[in-house]
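Reopening closed ticket. The problem is back. First fold of the pair:
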Amino acid sequence: MQCGSNVNTTMWDPVQIFTHHSHYKYAVVILNSPLYWKDDILLQIWKNAQINVTVDGGTYKWLCYLKEQGIDLLNENHNEYVPNLITGDMDSCSPIILEKLKNMGSIIIETPDQDHTDYAKALFQLGQYVKMKNIKLNRIYVFTDFSGRFDHIMGNINTLYKSDTLIEHVQVIQIASDSMTWILRPGFHSIIIPKILIQVIAGADFYQLVHL
């Protein structure tokens, strides 16, 4: 995504995920971390995504979030909330749950390689999937609220840094309940900031901004 008259400029409009434009194609990846999202915000984001991926224990986190919204995915007919892909070394998700989701349409890809994180392996598998399905994505949103562990934080940043080698030509943004994180590589960048973020008083939280 380049623009500019004399120089190439990478455009960033990260909050497009909340606008639901039909031309905006994105994927959702849910890692094994808490989902602190209120109301049905994440449900709408999920339903408007081209591809949804849960990563190992992230599958369980997604099911728990759905239950908080009154949705029992394993025992009710809510196929719109079934992940397209489930990846990881599968040490944090029940085989029974995986089998049920497979029968509901999920593609299960076990990635036991311990030289890479489940996050990195998920991006690679997502890249293979979009090539196979000939899907063009504008962006990938990786949902991860930091647990406070420094090794997890640095591991996620490291994966962001390597994301170009895992899935080409797609911007990857980590999104938490109160922040967004991405890598600015060498070159020129233009970041579109919503007016409400400029005008809002200090201390307003992310959910208030989304609902304004």
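Second fold of the pair, where the issue appears:
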Amino acid sequence: MKSRALIVGVSGVVGSALASKLLAEGWQVYGLSRGHSAVPAGCTALTADLTSEHAVQQALEGIEVDKVFFSVWARQENEKENIRVNGAMVRHVLDALGSRLKGGHVALVTGLKHYLGPFDAYGKGEVPVTPFREEMGRQPVDNFYYAQEDEVFAAAEKYQFSWSVHRPHTIIGYAVGNAMNMGQTLAVYATLCKHTGQPFIFPGSAMQWNGVTDMTDARLLADQLQWAATREQANNEDFNVVNGDVFRWQWMWSQIADYFGIEAVPFSGEMQPLEGRMQDAAAQWQQIASQYSLKQADVNKLASWWHTDADLGRPMEVITDISKSRKAGFDGYQCTRDAFIELFDKLRAEKLIP
């Protein structure tokens, strides 16, 4: 009998990679989203406003699944609102499915802000000593990741299903309109630099430029999600997930520049965030899109300046230990440079960059 999965946030960078993987392996896949973006071919699209309990119940009426994957959030004006809204979205889905989930599995994707704190208090508290390990637990701050976890834990006890929590670092992957997508943002930035003559300046901090870091390919995260949902040893566990290699941005910046045929400007020692320098990007991108017949002329559907600034501007080292999932049997690996190059190739093939 086929495994039947519901992916909440199916059109996002994680959800789309997971849907493609599960469909290729013969799963029946339902994708729940707001309906603003296309879902992978073969996925049964379900549409609902996840903040509405009634809308979610209607969308999921009669749907029978044994695996649920959450990779969704809605950014609010502060963390207390993030907690209220994002916690409710998880609760609405799990309560709508209810006892149909008995004996099944629910996987929740969060991230390293579990250790760093939310955007409201990003790195302002006492950040644990790196590399981050799952046993470090929660920070003493409000965090919507914790609220989402608590909703999963409570529903697991009530409806008798197993769970897993997955904590990627910054994700490299393909998704149009995604709010947290560094790979696409850097592709757009490099393209703008090439076609307007702007210098390809690293926007982040000295710590990120000089220090060692890691990242997570969306396809590798999809591999871990499927693994955890189908392995008893992964039940009721939290797992970090990164590619398995490390790098310094001072090296990776030149690799990205080489791909686009531009010069990587040496780091000046001062942060130069993208959000403050991309005031003309919308008009410039419309011209580039028209010149090269690109599919997406709205730069804001491809790039998220604020999120890339937040990741590259971190004042502390961010690196992850993945021993726990290795010991449990997950052996996935992805070269991060290759992940960037493969994403850029796909963006070109899809006519999203020239």
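Update: turned out to be a display glitch only; the data is intact. Residues 94 and 319 are 32 Å apart (CA to CA). Residues 4-168 form a domain with the Rossmann fold fold (CATH 3.40.50.720). Please close again.
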